[in-house]
Amino acid sequence: MEHTFNEFLVARGLPELAQFSRKWIHPELDLHIDSIIDICNPMLETHHADVLDLSRLTLNQLQAVEWFYSRSNHAGGLALSIPLLNPTICDLFIEYLQDKPMVVNSKEHENYQIPELVTKTRDEELFNSLFAFAHYCLFPLMGLMWCKYPDRVETIQFAQYSDKKAETTWHHDIYSDMTAVVNLAPELYTGGGTDIRTSLVTYEHVHSIPKGYVLLFSGSMSLHRGAQVETGTRNLLVFWTTSDKTETMLAEGKDVNIEPVTKMSGNAQNASLKVGIKGITNGTHPQKRSKRTI
Ligand SMILES: [Fe+2]
Question: Are 21 and 33 in contact (CB under 8 A)?
């Protein structure tokens, strides 16, 4: 049986990093994430936001908003790149993945197949840590970008593009309203990046982003493809999330299972995430809504 991320870290003498904690957060994002969470808290009740009233924000929150909107926009605002994951954790993921076979999804058409490792099925402990990480700092960024909160994580997986394959086929991530793609090791390849369609006849090439940065874009709405890697291997961490279910439920007047967070894992216990969503599911069957809180 292949070893888990936890076992890998124990062997490295770093067991404390197995569970999500603030050490996972990119240092630049760490300066602002608590303010961003506070701004997004009202969004947790409805999964979408009204217009943000800047006059009601604290100085720290205003600085966080200014920081967020000063980040790199791509393809006319269809995509945004922002620091997310601590480069130290990126390096540990790369090391952990070294002896892990990545497999293509044989159910997908050949044109769409990319070697991948689906965390939910291959290392559930790691999936849970990544889910907590996304809940804590990725979803608030999505809230700021789209004024919407995910209510379901479709998959969290590692993916590899190598120079053996031409650019991937243009596609929509049909199971992902809000896609997040983290660049784990830009030093291991040349070329790559992401092409995003801006119209039927135009597209913009988004160059490789720095280590630990995430590219946020609407996977289901933006036609996109992975650009060809020229040398080496491009390692990505991919999150697919959706948000439509809760809005449908709200429209139907159904309970969306919002409750205060009472427990948080690891070093995140002292952090200031005040509200969680019991209704956010973690890739299991949609009817079996997770009771998870972090
Ligand atoms: Fe995609």
Answer: no
CA of 269 to the centre of ligand 1 (A): 34
Which pTM value belongs to this model?
A: 0.82
| Number of residues written out for the chain | 294
pLDDT number for residue 271: 36
pLDDT digits (tens, 9 = 90+) for 155-167: 999 999 887 666 6
- What is the Å distance from ligand 1's center to 172 Cα? 6
Q: How far is the CA of 34 from the centre of ligand 1 (A)?
A: 29
For residue 155, give the 3-state DSSP assignment: strand
Distance (angstroms) between ligand 1 centre and the Cα of 256 equals: 28
State the CB neighbour count (10 A cutoff) for residue 159. 19
Which H or E run contains 236? Answer: strand 229-242
Question: Which residue, among 46, 107, 93, 59, has the nearest Cα to 255 in the 3D structure?
Answer: 46
CATH number of the domain at 20-277, please?
A: 2.60.120.620
Place of tokens 């998870």: 292
Rg for the chain, CA atoms, rounded: 18
The confidence score (pLDDT) of residue 95 equals 97
| Centroid of ligand 1 to alpha carbon of 4 (angstroms) | 26
CA of 57 to the centre of ligand 1 (A): 35
User: What are the residue boundaries of the structural domains of the chain, listed by start?
Assistant: 20-277
Name the strand (E) or helix (H) holding 116. strand 116-118
* Interatomic CA distance for residues 215 and 207, integer angstroms: 11
Distance 232 CA to ligand 1 centre (A): 20
